[in-house]
Specification:
Two copies of one chain form a homodimer. Chain A is of the alpha/beta class. Helices cover 47% and strands 15% of the residues of chain A. Chain A is built from 17 helices and 13 strands. The radius of gyration of chain A is 24 Å and the shape is globular. The A-B interface holds A 69, 72-73, 85, 120-121, 123-126, 128-130, 132-133, 135-138, 140-141, 146, 150, 153, 155-159, 161-162, 165 and B 69, 72-73, 85, 120-121, 123-126, 128-130, 132-133, 135-138, 140-141, 146, 150, 153, 155-159, 161-162, 165.
């Protein structure tokens, strides 16, 4: 079981200490904090959240902190710019869907769930300033993302510098034994140790994990709009996984799936000797199985093969009725909802991503006939109907 | 009257605005904050505090803020290093004597007095973080004393960076129209304007004043142990003023006394043509008159002239009875309380500041006779008595 707990970890603080506790079989309180600034979960976050399931399987107590208070400020850890403060209402709205999604990943019913306004609403300013005293300006500035922004001359709001202390105090409030998080959380996780010591608590152990990369080579993040969401429809999820670069295949196996280390070694060998596409098909099927089920995964695979591999169109394509055969291409793409707005439509056309009956089109006006298939990108289709 | 309000000012924000209000004769709320980390007031602080009297004389309302909350953290404005947090009890003890001293400078009975724990004890963390959001890290670091410490690699506690915002919020709490302070307070005074705007209040006007220099050329400060205290005994105060460098004489006239601008011009001329000592005697007499009275000032002057100028000994010298004529000089100086400890005594001897019957002594052992006068520095005397 420890194989999965530590897989893809980047830092373990203090490893000897944590391993000894796991060996002793003590029931540990495993803290994980959620920043409810979005209402969806992508595969990157889910990779870390799945560790909670593995801790549960090993008999530990999951303690979930919903950043109902901190979420109003926003964590700058994974941000390159300042974030605006959310209202309590926005935080609550985000959380509603979020909990349903979490339940897909681990047993949320047996987890303790705390909203951190429980303790921060009553925190005195006096106590808060004493917590501030535990940290120095230099420590804060040395944080990688702060120092970069500082050097660039970008604004860093003072409230952002308070965030690690808020997250750190959460560990005091729930008496965490272990806190886990993405590698970009390391500073915040360590802050917890510092503050717990000041409150005469044994400092928590920490495991930070690798961040999942997206097909654009950047880390998967809402901010970059490069996410595979765990509630993406099977076909969409399957297709997105099939779009990742071949050199990310093993990275995804390690972070997202539970394929054993031994099997990963085999797959890595396969990648070198066989067609990487086949290993990627296996990956996509694994991932869709986790977040949907094996049947959906199998159909998604079949659909994908039929559409892309065999160069066939998908089985079902929605119809769109036009009044006139003469169409402005940009307006048409927006009207059939294959783009959100005109500027996106223009960009898609310029990038050569728009086809009619498999032929690229980039003229301002186009002639369409009944039955023509308008395609945007690899996976979006609409069949044109004339009156 | 405005002559004294603006005399020795370094910044007036916004001058046109403030001058217009003063002209209109509106009753303004003049805020002044006291950081109760000491229990005495030196001439430098008093120079600024006396402005409150001038504002009172012009019909305005003095609003005194006792930093009962902020004083627990400590303002870093005039500090080159981090300060430890005071307890509430220490703050209270300091304030008791402080108020008596303030009453010597302005009419404290007609002033509003607020202790800022009144509002900070009830401040929610949420509201506090929203105030933090108004300031950026860069703004804080650019402060002269922070940037110097930062460059030296000295620790700056995060609680110190919260101080300007605390002081700034005080202005919101009392709806200040004007805040005054020493020039090293400028950043904190401006913070008040920023926060008042966020609370939809008209931002306060600001007057910052020159800092008084001590005879060692540094600004007068408890930290440098170079203070003339307003409760120093007349003779001591007189003597300390007579010790300042000649080139500080006009600086003291401007900052500490209320001698008119016209008269200062005359005094400055006198300084060049006559003996500076005579101008300094006038200065010392002015200052002692302010903090004691004219009679004490006149006697202090007479005593000083008789002792130093006429090379006579003071009229009264305390006796000290020794057992033995053979004395260890260091031990003797400590025993007669002309030095606090042996290392100070040694230093005084090495610097040639110790005399017996007007002759310098620096040997380890000395022979003393009944009636000998032991002198340390210029103004400390003890008459030796043998049994």
């Amino acid at each position: 079981m420890n194989e999965l707990l530590f897989r893809a970890s980047t830092e373990v603080v203090v490893r000897e200490d944590l391993e000894a506790k796991l060996k002793k079989g003590a029931k540990l309180r495993i803290k994980y904090g959620i920043d409810p600034t979005g209402d969806r979960i992508h595969l990157g976050h889910a990779a870390t959240i799945r560790k909670l399931k593995h801790f549960q399987d090993a008999g530990h107590q999951v303690v979930l902190i919903v950043g109902s208070f901190t979420g109003q400020i926003g964590d700058a850890s994974d941000k390159d710019s300042e974030r605006t403060i959310l209202t309590k209402e926005e935080v609550q709205a985000n959380m509603a869907n979020y909990e349903t999604l979490l339940a897909k990943i681990f047993d949320i019913d047996s987890a303790e769930i705390h909203y951190n306004h429980e303790w921060f609403n009553d925190m005195s300013l006096d106590e808060w300033l004493r917590i501030n005293q535990l940290f120095s300006l230099a420590q804060m500035i040395e944080r990688d993302n702060f120092s970069k922004r500082f050097e660039r001359g970008d604004r860093i709001g003072l409230q952002e510098m308070q965030y690690p202390m808020l997250q750190g105090y959460d560990s005091v409030a729930v008496r965490a034994d272990v806190e886990i998080g993405g590698n970009d959380q390391l500073f915040n996780l360590l802050a917890g140790r510092n503050i717990q010591k000041a409150y005469d608590q044994e400092p928590q152990n920490i495991i930070s994990y690798e961040l999942l990369l997206a097909d654009d080579g950047r880390k998967m993040s809402k901010s970059w709009a490069n996410c595979i969401w765990i509630d993406d429809e099977p076909a969409d999820m399957f297709g997105k996984v099939m779009s990742i670069n071949d050199d990310l295949i093993m990275h995804y196996f390690k972070l997202v799936t539970e394929v054993s280390d031994d099997e990963m070694t085999k797959l890595e060998k396969d990648l070198k000797t066989n067609n990487p596409r086949d290993v990627k098909l296996r990956l996509a099927e694994e991932i869709v199985s986790i977040y949907h089920d094996e049947t959906s995964a199998a159909s998604a695979k079949e659909a994908w093969l039929s559409q892309f591999s065999d160069k066939k169109l998908p089985a079902t394509i929605p119809d769109f009725v036009v009044d006139n055969q003469q169409q402005n291409l940009v307006d048409l793409i927006v009207a059939v909802e294959l783009a959100d707005n005109k500027s996106e439509a223009k960009r898609l056309i310029e990038q050569g991503g728009v086809r009619i009956n498999s032929h690229k089109v980039d003229s301002e006006m186009v002639n369409v006939n009944d039955g023509d298939v308008l395609q945007v990108g690899k996976r979006k289709f609409v069949r044109i109907k004339t009156k």
